Amino acid sequence: MGLADRLRAARGEEGPAAAHATAPSPDPASPATPASAEAAPESATAAPAPPGLARPTEPKPAASSPPLARRASAPREAQDAMRALKERTTESLYERLGTRLNDPSMSDEQLRQLVQQELTAVIEGENLAMTGAERRRFVEEVQADVLGLGPIEGLLADPSVTEVMVNAPDKVYIEHAGRIYHSDVRFRDEAHVRQIIDRIVGRMGRRIDESSPLVDARLDDGSRVNAIIPPLAFTGPTLTIRKFSHEALTIPDLIRLDSLTPEIAELLDACVKARLNVLISGGTGTGKTTLLNVVSSFIPGGERIISIEDAVELQLQQEHVVRLESRPPNIEGKGEVTIRDLVRNSLRMRPDRIIVGEVRGAEALDMLQAMNTGHDGSLSTIHANSPRDALARLETLVLMAGMELPLRAIREQIASSIDLIIQLARLRDGTRRIVAVTEVNGMEGQTITMQDVFLFNYGAGVDRDGRFLGHVLPTGVRPQFSDRFADLGIQLSPRVFGAEPPPPPPPPRTR
Q1: pLDDT tens digits for 184-233?
Q2: What is the pTM of this model?
Q3: Hey, is 29 helix, strand or coil?
Q4: DSSP 43-56
Q5: Domains (ranges, CATH) in the chain?
Q6: What H or E segment, with its residue span, contains residue 175?
C-alpha cells in the first residue's frame, strides 16, 4: 500500500483497488454490529483526561482536559505516514530554499511568501490526494517547522496553555488550568529540538553551545524561555516556555479567578497611591509578575516610572515609562550589565517609582537604599514561601553584596524600607491566590516585627472537584500605615479590615 493509499485509509476513503473489490458477506453466526457503533462520535467514546503529573486520586473537573493534550484518534499507521511525509517535505523544502532562509535582506513577510510558494510546488510534486482542510493544516505545520517553533507552535497559539515543557522529543508537557498534562505533540529527534532552540535563541541575539549550554531568552510576545543542552542536560536538549497573556489581566479578572478579593484590591490601590513600598512574594509560577502588573496599574499616570528586569515581561499601562533590561556577557565574557548596575543607574534618571521585576542578587542592597532615600512607592518581587521567609531571603541577598554589614543594620534597613508584603501561592487545585497580606511594623530587639492583615482560610475545605472553598479574609487588625491614608485624604471602606460600619445615631428624642 502506497503513502497516498494509507492516507486515504486513515480518512476512511476507498482506494482504487477497493472500489472494485467485492465486500465479504457477513457471518450469520457472528453478532450483528450496527453501523452506528462503528461511526460513533468521538465525544461518546472520549478518552479520559490525561493524568499528567497529578496524582490519580485527585478529582478533576471534566472541563479541565486540554484538547491539545488528548491522544490523536487516527490509526498509528496513518500518524506515521503523515509524519514521514512532513519530514520528507521539510527536507525537500530546505534543499530548494538553501541559504535564502538566512538572507538578512528579506523581511519576515517576504520569507514567508517564498516558503509558501516553494511548499506548494513540493506538495504538487508529491501528487497527494488531500482535502482542503488537510492541505491547509499540512502547510501550516510545515511552515511552522521551517520558520516558526515547529511542533509546539500550536501549543503556544492556544490561549488555555500557560506553559510548555519539552523534556525529550516524545515527552512534551503542557500546563493547562494550573495542572500538567502530557501532550501528543512530538519532535522528530533531539536534533529537531536543538534546531528550534537555536532558532529561538538566535532571534534574541543570544547563543547556546557547549561553552554556554544554558540560556534565558524571550519570544516576540514576551513569553519567557529557558533552554539547557548537554552536557548540563543529561537527558538531552530541554526547553521550557512560560507564556504570557497578550492582554494584561485586570483587577476584575483576578477577582473573577478568586486570586484576590475586592477588599484587597481596594487596599492595594490605597497603598500604591500612598507611596508605600510593596514586596510581592511567592514561589515559581505563582503569578508574581501578573500581580505586579496589576498593582503597577494603580500608579498615577503623571509619574515617571523606571522598570528594571532581566527579560522585559511587565506590561505597564502608563505612558511615562522607561524600561531597562539587563545584558549577559558576550562570547568573550565581557559587556555584562547586571540588575544592580541598572538599579544604580536608575537613581540618576529622576524616577518617581522604581519597579524591579525580581530581586535575586546583590541589587537588594541598592533597592533598599533607594526606598530609604526618597524613592518610596517602589515595587518588586522575590522568591519566598512566606512573608517571614521573604525578609530572611532579603537579608541573604544583601549579604551577597559583599559590604560586610552587621545583621542588625541590615534588618533595620529592611524594616524601614518595606511596608507591605503580599504572599502568593499556587494551591493544590491549580489556582493561584493571595494567601497573606502582611505589614512590616519595625524592629523589636533583633527581630523584625510583622502583623498579618489578611490570611487565607484553609479551614473551609474543598469541594467535590478538589477546589478550595476558602478565601483570603481580614484578620481584624488595622495596619499602622492606615494613619498615612488619613493624612493623605485616602478613604477606605470599613469592610476592608473586617470592621462593620458604625450603627447610625439614635433619632433625637421628642417631648
Answers
A1: 888 888 988 998 898 888 777 777 888 889 888 878 777 889 999 998 99
A2: 0.71
A3: coil
A4: GGGPPPPP-TTS-T
A5: 1-7+67-147 (no CATH), 149-244 (3.30.450.370), 251-497 (3.40.50.300)
A6: strand 171-176
